Amino acid sequence: MERYRITAPQPSFGCQACLPLADRQTMEVHIHVIVGRLCADLNVLIDGFPMMHGMEAEEICRRAFQLPRLIREDVRFSAGGIACHTYYFRYLTADEGEHLPEGRAAEALKCSFGSPDSFFYIFREEAKRMQTGGFLWLCTESRSHVSRLRLITTRGYDLPPAPYLPLLALDLWEHAYIGRFGEDRRAYADAFLRRLDWDAVGSTIAARACGG
Fold first, then answer.
1. Of 96, 180, 191, 202, which has the fewest CB atoms closer than 10 Å, so is most exposed?
2. Which sign does the torsion angle of CA 124, 126, 130, 133 carry?
3. 5 has a pLDDT exceeding 80
4. pLDDT-derived band of residue 22, with 50, 70 and 90 as boundaries?
5. Using 50, 70 and 90 to split pLDDT, how confident is the model at 2?
6. Is the CATH number 3.40.50.300 carried by domain 103-209?
């Protein structure tokens, strides 16, 4: 029987169309070297623990406390890194041109941040203030079937804590942006936001608000 294997997350369109967020070489290194190593390490770590097989990386990370103490932190690091990158790549699109929130996404951003423009500004400023080596998250916080949006920052490969449900994440490890943007994390964050499929983001927000 073929063993279960965690595979590296990546944009649905591959590495060839990531401009202006990153050049092809940067994205290939990001996916196949950095994230690929996390996947290889995690597969070795959980090989002897069948109860973890079939789980997504995020669930493995959150259930790492069930594993022996000797490997617990290594599993949490590797699985967390894969999960973080899954949210980073999830809504990236290869479609050319600027992508701005409309419809359900725009309405949700307006309710939580005042307007989509205000959200873009706050997101860029949070990315600028945050030190390298972590992720900036847009999360939903569902209460009474109304999804409220929140910005959360985490260090390393930590995931947002409950009750926040991750929606998307900006990778603020240096390898993700330094080649194209230098230290200008505001420009990098802006390029990321304008590369997202906001219709898909809005659909996810709406599904969560309805209990889906």
1. 96
2. negative
3. no
4. confident
5. very low
6. no
Distances in whole angstroms, Cα of residue 16 to Cα of each of 4, 95, 207: 28, 12, 31
Return the sign of the alpha-carbon dihedral for residues 57, 61, 62, 63: positive
* Integer Cα distance of 168 and 40 in angstroms: 24
Token pair 């990778």 in the structure block, residue: 171
Q: List the domain boundaries for the chain.
A: 24-89, 103-209
User: Residue with structure tokens 């973890």?
Assistant: 52
Close Cβ partners of 149 (under 8 Å, ≥ 6 residues apart): 108, 109, 111, 112, 113, 119, 138, 139, 140, 141, 167, 205
Domain at 24-89: CATH code: 1.10.287.990
Q: Which of 210, 207, 204 is nearest to 101 (CA)?
A: 204
